[in-house]
């Protein structure tokens, strides 16, 4: 694919990278994509785009793309190309054999946040109705599963409260654990526009990220906390709000559970939670915490935006609850310009969660123990739904190591590179009898696969994505699938081959089924999406365009729920053996494990992961900028080049994880969030020393 020539037609489709969900005119000449032009009518981007969505689509016909199915008896054998019929029949035969020998719960599936809602829905349907268990999970496990838990607990809905436009009505913005300049660039532009108009910014982040001080924008406060102390900082902010009389009493009285508020208020008011008492722990000056708390509580409309720096901790869910507490205590919910807003990483991570990809939840976040919901699915799907939650990804891998889990169908995920504690992931995959990888390229996980099913790109399929503001948008097929099948067709063939009937002719029929069984998607159809451009769930026939701002008059759960958020130190503490704390993130030109962007011109801007290290720590170790360094944790070690910079504080190092040569997740550990098992990517105790290279 190259940006050349004169187009003769176009389709409007949605970017397959981040959760902003920009829409583009995909301009075509025949079967050739000529260019992607940001779509002015796109409600998420309004004609804007970033370097990924605008230019990074050359991977679609990259020479390394796999277009034929492949099988092999063992992972030591060479791959053998086969036709689709043989690949599907072989996979189904293996799944049936394994279930006959080891029981129906010995197999499972992983959905992809890069795939469409329709494809995700079919994978979880295959697992629940075809395999007969709930062993389905999603990559949201390793990113925003604490958001799902925390926001559902506090408000009753596992989603952000606002649309992106809402930021233009915000007066004070807290940005915590998110770097939108790199991760959500088009939203970052809108945020900076609002800041230039006079809104105030509070950044809570261990690094001095770009937006702390960039042209015409300067944060009012930067709280450079020690990695792993989010809960302590947020509870200190709450302490100031409660003890200085900054609570919105009317909001709390009218909208929240009073007894729970009183309990929480007494908890945070304890002197041990004051900014002064926690200063040595968090490394944030107490006066900065006090100033930030006063500004958020009394600085007009207060909006909180957060990212993976909140969720990917052992206290990720607690941190989301702490954010929800702050928003309720200050009355910053239920209107434009305020709210609790997770910046979702992947293009369809919201959608993959909505579609029932978690092992404990059916589509629309109904628990599998809900008898009425299961009865509805049984009537429609003609199959009993297991009432017990299935296994999460780390538990599937652990059960495989224990000999109890034997086969895994992975659609569009590279868990060996993206999931923490690579050695554990490899051991789990190696212990399975049948690993099926469905992807564009032979990714790292495919090294452990017995079947490779070539996937299709977003340019080759019809469907929908749901962005971070709950906006459902069409993905339109602009070229035929080079591999011969769209991803949903592969899943359907697999279901048919194991003996479970699926008979969709088009993804629009899958969406009709989603809308019929998922209350928050009521009334969504391709016709309606074509007419309206997009729909923000929750929606129904009475509100066909959906709901830009949620919880206007009351919370979905009724009264808002305050929860005590006791700080618990992570096991990853700097000590004599591992004296530095490693945190990880991403960069503008690359996307996640880089499977797509590394195969585009974007690699010219970022062709390797670097380790950011403070000049003081570098000098102590004799490390100069550009030197090779070895980073070692209790989980493993890797080698990469140093980038000496004061963007990170002394004692903190930072890297990206886009390149398999680095394998940053060899170093990250198996620590995870107490409620959801979301890995603690953001804190790993490490030692760093000079190296001669990899
Ligand atoms: Fe928009 Fe995100 Fe795609 Fe960039 S990567 S064009 S910000 S959706």
From TrEMBL:
GO terms for molecular function: 2 iron, 2 sulfur cluster binding; 4 iron, 4 sulfur cluster binding; formate dehydrogenase (NAD+) activity; metal ion binding; molybdopterin cofactor binding; NADH dehydrogenase activity. GO terms for biological process: formate metabolic process; respiratory electron transport chain. One of its GO terms (cellular component) is oxidoreductase complex. Keywords: 2Fe-2S, 4Fe-4S, Iron, Iron-sulfur, Metal-binding, Oxidoreductase, Repeat. Residues 8-64 form the 4Fe-4S Mo/W bis-MGD-type domain. It comes from the Bacteria. Belongs to the complex I 75 kDa subunit family. In the C-terminal section; belongs to the prokaryotic molybdopterin-containing oxidoreductase family. This is Formate dehydrogenase subunit alpha. It comes from Sphingomonas gilva. The chain holds residues 229 to 922 of 945 of the full protein.
């Amino acid at each position: 694919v190259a940006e050349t020539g004169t187009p003769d037609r176009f389709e409007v489709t949605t970017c397959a990278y981040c959760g902003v969900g920009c829409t583009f005119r995909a301009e075509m000449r025949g079967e050739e994509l000529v260019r992607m032009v940001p779509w002015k009518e796109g409600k998420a981007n309004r004609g804007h785009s970033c370097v990924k969505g605008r230019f990074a689509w050359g991977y679609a016909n990259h020479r390394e793309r796999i277009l034929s199915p492949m099988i092999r008896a063992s992972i030591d054998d060479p791959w053998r190309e086969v036709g689709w019929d043989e690949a599907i029949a072989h996979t189904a035969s293996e799944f049936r054999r394994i279930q006959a020998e080891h029981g129906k719960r010995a197999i499972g599936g992983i959905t992809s946040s890069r795939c469409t809602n329709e494809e995700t829905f079919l994978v979880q349907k295959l697992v629940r109705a075809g395999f007969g268990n709930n062993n389905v999970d999603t990559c949201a496990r390793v990113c925003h599963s604490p958001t799902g838990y925390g926001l559902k607990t506090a408000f009753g809905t596992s989603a952000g409260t606002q649309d992106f436009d809402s930021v233009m009505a915000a007066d004070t913005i807290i940005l915590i654990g998110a770097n939108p300049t790199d991760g959500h660039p088009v939203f970052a532009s809108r945020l900076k526009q609002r800041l230039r108009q006079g809104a105030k910014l509070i950044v809570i982040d261990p690094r001095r990220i770009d937006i702390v001080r960039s042209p015409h924008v300067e944060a009012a406060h930067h709280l450079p906390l020690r990695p792993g102390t989010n809960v302590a900082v947020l509870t200190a902010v709450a302490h100031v709000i409660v003890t200085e009389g900054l609570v919105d009493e009317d909001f709390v009285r009218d909208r929240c559970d009073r007894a729970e508020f009183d309990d929480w208020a007494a908890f945070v008011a304890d002197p041990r939670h004051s900014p002064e008492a926690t200063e040595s722990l968090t490394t944030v000056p107490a006066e900065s915490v006090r100033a930030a708390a006063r500004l958020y509580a009394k600085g007009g409309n207060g909006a909180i935006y957060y990212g993976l720096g909140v969720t990917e901790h052992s206290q990720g869910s607690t941190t989301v609850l702490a954010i929800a507490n702050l928003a309720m205590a200050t009355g910053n919910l239920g209107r434009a310009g305020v709210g609790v807003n997770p910046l979702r990483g992947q293009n369809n991570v919201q959608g993959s969660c909505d579609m029932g990809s978690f092992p404990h939840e059916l589509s629309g976040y109904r628990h599998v123990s809900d008898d009425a919901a299961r009865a509805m699915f049984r009537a429609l799907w003609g199959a009993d739904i297991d009432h017990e939650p299935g296994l999460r990804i780390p538990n599937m891998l652990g059960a495989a190591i224990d000999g109890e889990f034997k086969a895994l169908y992975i659609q569009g995920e590279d868990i060996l590179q993206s999931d923490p504690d690579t050695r554990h992931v490899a051991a789990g995959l190696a212990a399975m009898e049948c690993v099926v990888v469905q992807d564009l390229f032979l990714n790292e996980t495919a090294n452990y696969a017995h079947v490779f099913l070539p996937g299709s790109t977003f340019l080759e399929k019809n469907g929908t994505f749901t962005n971070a503001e709950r906006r459902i948008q069409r993905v339109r097929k602009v070229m035929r699938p080079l591999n011969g099948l769209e991803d949903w067709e592969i899943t359907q063939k697999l279901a048919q081959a194991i003996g479970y009937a699926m008979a969709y002719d088009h993804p629009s029929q899958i969406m009709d089924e989603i809308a019929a069984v998922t209350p928050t998607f009521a009334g969504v159809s391709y016709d309606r999406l074509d007419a309206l451009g997009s729909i923000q769930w929750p929606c129904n026939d009475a509100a066909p365009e959906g709901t830009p701002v949620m919880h206007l008059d009351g919370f979905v759960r009724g009264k808002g729920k305050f929860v005590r958020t006791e700080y618990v130190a992570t096991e990853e503490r700097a000590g004599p053996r591992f004296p530095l704390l490693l945190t990880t993130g991403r960069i503008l030109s690359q996307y996640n494990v880089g499977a797509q962007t590394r195969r585009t011109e974007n690699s010219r801007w970022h062709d390797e992961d670097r380790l950011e290290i403070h000049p003081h720590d570098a000098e102590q170790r004799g490390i100069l900028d550009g030197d090779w360094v070895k980073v070692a944790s209790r989980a493993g070690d890797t080698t990469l080049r140093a980038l000496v910079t004061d963007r990170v504080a002394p004692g903190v190092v930072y890297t990206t994880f886009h390149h398999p040569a680095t394998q940053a997740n060899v170093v990250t550990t198996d620590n995870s969030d107490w409620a959801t098992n979301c890995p603690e990517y953001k804190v790993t105790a490490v030692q760093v020393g000079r190296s001669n290279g990899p």
